[in-house]
Write a structure and sequence with these properties.
Elements: E1 10-12, E2 15-17, E3 26-27, E4 54-58, H1 67-84, E5 90-92, E6 101-106, E7 124-126, E8 134-139, E9 144-145, E10 152-153, H2 154-166, E11 181-182, H3 191-201, E12 211-214, E13 220-224, E14 233-238, E15 247-252, E16 260-266, E17 272-280, E18 290-293, E19 299-306, E20 309-315, E21 321-324, E22 331-332, E23 338-339, E24 357-358, E25 367-370
Parallel strand pairs: 3-11, 4-5, 4-6, 6-8, 9-10
Antiparallel strand pairs: 1-2, 7-8, 12-13, 12-25, 14-15, 15-16, 16-17, 18-19, 19-20, 20-21, 22-23, 24-25
Length: 371
């Protein structure tokens, strides 16, 4: 059976959803991105199950310069990522049917993938779902150069798209190759890129701000590398999505920062799976709100109003605390706060300990997250 080069675009509720296309970097014309904050420093789309070399194939049709030159540029970009993790081995194949990554240039008129646009930076896009096989498409209508000295940099763009294939999302760090604005000066992985890669696939060293996930026996299950620098990020463990499985929920400490909220999900084996968000949260822990798990670990925001009284709201899956806690229902939080009889007054009005435990893998057993 011939493999389709690109899953079909689908219409959903009247909105065109490019279900197969991840945004590529926009061209900054050589000017780097500026960012008010690099929190969170990186995001994760998912993780690949890697059990051997990853094979890539180049379709020679429409290449902007000789296929040999394009191959050399791509091999260099793949080499940057493989040098950062012993788990990653990339090899070229001459067979499209055997390829894990199909790479080709087109003008955006393919029926299944649609036009390149501002949504994908007008330069490139790749398969949205983090899985193999996958594809990377470069626009044939862009003025490319191998290194970005005269036109858009094919090497820099390939470096970015390969990161997406591996499961990295966009980064708020302006020095990251995963920043959404293309900068020809980015030719090496930044600390944020390495932290994201090592969180997914292991390797590297723990950096300041790493979080460690321990099982019930104290064994290390996963490391969230550089994810929560103590001066910049606070966190709690609770079920923010309401599916019975807890997440590691984070928010900025800086009082002047946007009140973002984002969270990490683990798979059933305790490996880092992906991140969600950031979203702007309607409750702000920096202004007295307490975020923790309640019955069954369900995420709740408690807003004290004085003399032990409070308002409490359950979270929705988009990070909004909008569902009022039922009147008359007792409230016992995983940080030790408690309204024993549900009368709207907290007998324990301040946290006794951090809310750093919860069932992160869905097996009914709680894990612990530590700095």
């Amino acid at each position: 059976m011939m493999r389709s080069r690109c899953p079909r675009t689908v219409w959903l509720l009247g909105l065109l959803v490019l279900a197969a296309c991840e945004k590529g970097p926009a061209d900054s014309g050589g000017q780097g991105e500026t960012a008010a904050s690099a929190i969170p420093p990186y995001t994760l789309r998912g993780r690949l199950d890697i059990d051997g070399p990853i094979l890539w194939f180049l379709d020679e049709k429409g290449t902007p310069f000789s296929p040999e030159t394009v191959r050399a540029v791509l091999a260099r970009a793949f080499g940057v990522w493989s040098a950062a993790s012993s788990r990653l081995v990339f090899r070229e194949t001459s067979s499209f049917e055997k390829a894990d990554i199909d790479i080709h240039f087109h003008d955006g008129k393919e029926r299944d993938c649609g036009h390149f646009s501002d949504l994908d930076g007008n330069l490139a896009h790749c398969g949205f779902t983090v899985r193999l096989p996958v594809w990377i498409h470069f626009s044939s209508e862009v003025s490319w150069s191998p290194d970005g000295k005269e036109g858009a940099g094919l090497f820099q763009t390939a470096l970015h798209e390969i990161g997406h294939v591996l499961g990295l999302g966009h980064s708020n760090d302006p020095g990251s190759v995963m920043a959404p604005i293309l900068d020809g000066a980015r030719t090496e992985l930044a600390a944020a890129d390495l932290a994201a890669l090592h969180s997914l696939y292991g390797g590297g060293e723990e950096t300041p701000g790493s979080l460690r996930v321990l099982d019930a026996d104290g064994r290390l299950m996963a490391t969230l590398v550089g994810a929560a620098p103590p001066a910049d990020v606070d966190f709690a463990v609770f079920d923010i999505e309401g599916d019975g499985v807890a997440e590691i929920v984070m928010w900025p400490r800086n009082a002047s920062a946007v009140p973002w909220i984002w969270w990490w999900k683990l798979d059933e084996m305790g490996r880092v799976k992906r991140t969600v968000g950031p979203y702007i949260c309607n409750v702000d822990p920096r202004k007295g709100a307490h975020l923790a798990g309640a019955d069954g670990g369900l995420g709740v925001a408690v807003l004290p109003s004085g003399e032990g009284r409070y308002r409490a709201y359950r979270f929705s899956a988009t990070g909004t605390a909008s569902v009022p806690w039922p009147r008359g229902r007792p409230l016992r939080l995983t940080n030790g706060m408690e309204d024993e009889n549900g009368d709207g007054v907290l007998e324990v009005a301040a946290p006794l300990h951090p809310a750093h435990r919860g069932d992160l893998t869905g097996d009914g057993v709680s894990e612990t997250v530590t700095r």
